[in-house]
Amino acid sequence: MQRLGIDNPEIIAGDIERPVSSKRPLESEGILIRGIKRLRENTLTLVQTLIEILKSVFEELSEIPSGQTLITEFIPTVNSSLSSFSYQSPHSESTNEDNSVVTDVIGMSLRNIAGEFKENIDKFIFCKGYKETFYTFLFLYKLIESVFPDYRTSVSSRHRANINKITAPKSIYFYKEEKIIFFEILNIFIGYKLENGYGVVGSYKIPEITLYRRVNGELVPLTRDQYSDYLTLAGGTQWVIRVREELECVRAMIGDHIVWTKETYLKGFLVTLLYKFADDSIVVEAGRLFKFTKYNKMWIEKTQIPFLLTHYAKDEIDGFIPVFIENVSIDDKNKYILDYTNEPNFDMVKYRDKTICRHQPGQSFPKSMSCYSNLKTFEFKFDDKFITYLLKGNELIEKHHHIPPVTLLSQDNEGNTRELSSDDYNLQMFTKGGIKFVYTLSHGVCTLIKYYDRVIWSRNTGEKPLYVVYRQETGRLEVIFEDKILLFDSKNPNSIVQTIEIPPELTLHKRNDQGETVKLSPLEYRVQTSEKTGLKYTPNDDIICTELRHNNRVVWKYTEGVHKPLSFTYFFKTKKKITVKFHYKPSLKYQLQNDE
Asked: How far apart are the C-alpha atoms of 380 and 309, rounded to whole Å?
């Protein structure tokens, strides 16, 4: 890119600044007048050149589909310093002459530069006037700042006519995997897709972000050498700013607006800032992870939970950028559930400074993760297994639990079957009291259950299973209905199916929106076998059970403001007994009389 300035290389400083000789005053004054006229002419030429540059860039932007241009301002920067032009010689230990090409892109339109890269997409491309860095999935080119003085003698003749019309990109980002190229020009990124023609993928204005540190109690802006910045496609098109580790960055501003300021309770300083072009949101990594979205000219802050758990995605320059996980819930057991649906893929999870897990090549990405508030056990759910990580001091214990070969199917009236998808059921793993897998079914959708290729259960008229439970230790399968539980021994194909009738005398209740006490529906709690003579009733996380009744007599009642119970266990085969289990306090036990 030709850097344009007030100083024109044709103007010799001596012609203007030379002292006027007393012997030849008229001649000296004539030289001065001619120099001033020449300066005025060149100033007009500069203005005309800037107009041509703007026209050229706007011609590039006019190709962008409606709704993709995010430019709000367009203010070119004029640099008054011009110095000698030099070519960057091709050099790379990993390249050879047969697999590399040298091209002259300065003076070319962005579309033509994109064409050069498309034609040589499988080669190492070296651009004259640029310093290149080759990463695994990114070729990054930075314009050498000293490339523009006497351009007419430094470039090929076919480009000289365009010198006053086209400005060269400051940076070129060539993403080989995605076949996308981005040009940084006049504080704007313009992107092209290098397949199926030359599609313009979008343009994005680089935000005016200023970072500050404290020096002798005063806020001082960080200088350009105190941070690095670059474009990444990891997690969406984002502008990344990384602050040098030894600096203590305490504030981030965009334009005149304060986005983030370090609070006194925070131990960490800003180390990474991400600006996402799609929604103008900002993520700040500073000991914790914060996300800021703009609403009515105000920046709304959201803190990542759990606080000390951070996800990272690998970017194209072999670094890691933080990923803010939006869909996080916490249940009454202080269990965090992170749903990775519609979230960017990530490659590493850290708790404090401890790496919990890293994504391996060829491995699928997890669908969700759960952990308790003590952050000692982390459970990742994949398509084919669960992986748990247990922190014991500095030791990290990893365990793999493969999902059992249970197949859930649906069969229509014509006998056609289909395997249920994840939209038809939810699978959870529980470790307490032995590993068990619990399938929560959409009501009435499952009509056939297989273990490997063996049919375990097929629906009779009117039967609608609610849950399927597989106990890993014993291999027992439980198919749970509203009024009964069928028990199957998956390890013994000749075993007899056992049936346990769910006793109708025990009922769970809640208060509805009108304040009335109503009975819980079978979909609002789960019943499963417990020990040898009991049944365990577990309300759903979003349900508060307010009464437990036996033969319509209230046995237990919920007290407003205290923790809700986790489960109820009913022992009914010999002596009738009910146990109410809580998370934070001892269980309550009720002995029932035989006539109750």
From this structure: 14
List, for residues 39-48, the tens digit of each pLDDT value: 455 444 444 5
Cβ neighbours for 229, distance < 8 A, ≥ 6 positions apart:
239, 240, 241, 242
- Phi and psi at 52, nearest 5°, equal -65, -40
Asked if residue 1 lies in contact with residue 106, where contact means CB atoms within 8 angstroms, the answer is yes
Burial 449-466 (b: 16+ CB within 10 A, else e): bbbeeeebbeeeeebebb
- In this structure, is the dihedral angle defined by the CA atoms of residues 315, 321, 326 and 328, taken in order, positive or negative? positive
Please give the Cα distance from 24 to 20 (Å, whole number).
8
Q: What is the Cα–Cα distance from 103 to 158, expressed in whole angstroms?
A: 13
3-state secondary structure of 198: coil
Which string of DSSP letters, residue by residue, matches 245-268? TTS-EEEEEETTEEEEE--TT---
C-beta atoms surrounding 110 within 10 Å? 26
Retrieve residue 233's tokens: 């496609």
Whose tokens are 């403001």? That residue is 561
What are the structure tokens assigned to 364, written together?
């699928």
Q: What local confidence, expressed as pLDDT, does residue 156 receive?
A: 53
SS3 string of 311-326?
Answer: EEEECCCCCEEEECCC
How would DSSP label each residue in 512-578? -TTS-EEEPPGGGEEEEEETTTEEEEEE-TT----EEEETTEEEEEPPTTSPPPSEEEEE-SSS-EE
Residue boundaries of the structural domains of the chain: 1-206, 209-303, 312-402, 406-501, 506-591
What residues form DSSP beta bridges with 454? 451
In SS3 terms, 55-116 reads as: HHHHHHHCCCCCCCECCCCCCCCCCCCCCCCCCCCCCCCCCCHHHEEEECCCCCCHHHHHHH
Q: Establish how many alpha carbons lie within 13 A of residue 452's alpha carbon, considering only the half-sphere containing its beta carbon.
A: 6
Quickly count: other Cβ atoms within 10 Å of residue 581's Cβ. 16
Q: Where are the alpha helices (DSSP H) in 265-412?
A: none
Nearest alpha-carbon partner for 453 in 498, 392, 499, 409 = 409
Q: Which residues contact 372 (CB under 8 A, 6 or more apart)?
A: 333, 334, 335, 336
Helix, strand or coil for residue 352?
coil
Beta bridge partners of 439: 427, 468
- Per-residue pLDDT tens digits for 47-73: 454 445 445 555 555 544 433 443 333
- In the structure encoding, which two tokens stand for residue 262, read together? 């370090």
Q: DSSP character for 27?
A: H
| 79 to 46, 145, 266, 581: CA distances (angstroms) | 12, 11, 41, 73
Q: Which amino acid is at 104?
A: D
List pLDDT tens digits, range 416-436. Answer: 889 999 889 999 999 888 899
**Interatomic CA distance for residues 170 and 53, integer angstroms:** 14
Q: How far apart are CA 288 and CA 536, in angstroms?
A: 39
